[in-house]
Amino acid sequence: MTWRYQVVWTEEGGERIYSVCEVYLDEDGRLDSWTTDPVMRPIGEDRDDLEWTLVAMLADTGEWAPVNFASLKVGMVFERCPEASGAEVTATARRYLAAAKARRERQWPSK
User: Fold this and answer.
1) Residue 9: phi, psi to the nearest 5?
2) Of 83 and 21, more confident
3) Domain housing 87
4) Cα torsion through 74, 77, 78, 84, rounded to 10
5) CA 21/CA 38 separation, integer angstroms
6) Structure pTM?
7) Does 84 score more than 60 pLDDT?
8) How far is it, in rounded angstroms, from Cα 36 to Cα 32?
9) Strands 15-25 and 2-12
10) DSSP per residue over 63-77, as a string?
11) Does residue 9 contact residue 67 with C-beta atoms inside 8 Å?
């Protein structure tokens, strides 16, 4: 099973409100479960961990099309963003993630 962030929207006062939740996918990439709250707040054990969380959220925001939180169902498959809308954000975020990961590994080497 893998997980990632997913942009979702809810209706509040007749307006769409966008946020991010965590989704957990089975080995075929289908939705297995998700967080009960449509709003994930970025948190971390330290500054670097918080930075990694924020960049991961940004990367997934640029890669996956938003869905209605109320429509999440076990077994569903998510659509990727059209190439023009998310590719640049995702590429930038992925480069930043790789650099942050390298910094973390230098700071806390694996044993």
Assistant:
1) -130, 150
2) 21
3) 2-107
4) 180
5) 5
6) 0.77
7) no
8) 13
9) antiparallel
10) HB--EEGGG--TT--
11) yes
